[in-house]
Amino acid sequence: MYWLLDPLLRVPAVADVMGKSRYQKINQYFHTNDYSEALPKTDPTYDPLFRVRPLLDFIKAKSHMHYNLGCEISIDEAMIRMPHDLICSISLLGQKKMDIQEFVKCVEFAARKHKNQRRKDTEQTPYINHPIGVAYILSEEGAITDQKVLQVALLHDTVEDTDATIEEIAMLFGQDVAGLVQEVTDDKSLPKLERKRVQIEVAATTSPRAKLVKLADKLYNLRDLMRCTPLGWSEERVQDYFEWAAKVIRGLRGTNKRLEEELDMILKKRGVYELSIQ
Length: 278
Ligand SMILES: [Mn+2]
Prior knowledge:
metal ion binding, globular, mainly alpha
């Protein structure tokens, strides 16, 4: 009965991995040895999960924020390990299988939309290298396996820089993806300087999944700037960009350790790290 009633089991990431037998096993583990603080079962506020409730609440709050690490342990093992390990295994186990067809559809859409664009580097790299590179950073360095996040990485500049619309993306890839693309798209009705200021302002209130894409986008762009100065950019403009990026990153922190460490290395090299932590 508890198994059916617990509201935690409505959290998809937990429900996917928490079958009835598992739930009972975990419940048993946390209850067999110590009943010292337990309320009597007849008490109306008796919580069958009282001993693990803080941990479960912690998972519930964080399970949408952590997509990291490849620790493949069973949920039962995980329950007796550190909360962080547990979060990793829950988000890993809870994930649906990758839909390759849907993913390739994104690659094709982005390639078609960006087909006439080039990056500003001296080699005039095809623009599509950038969104693919952002998805690659998320998958390879960020260890992200959330398909929608990777799809959004591929699509993240289509609405801002091509004739693609949010409605079009919603129709082709669903509301979730469209909503996230919207979050990483600047308001084109604002002048350029204002848009940059707004990016700093909204960074902290962005959803965790959109923050991941923003972090990887910044990492890609800053690495590009370290590699070569874009055509027509002065040294001062490059430095301004680093300073601005640092201020945006300040609002994106606490999202992915590995990506943030990579960004920190670059920010320190350019002497703007302080701007990203105040
Ligand atoms: Mn971008």
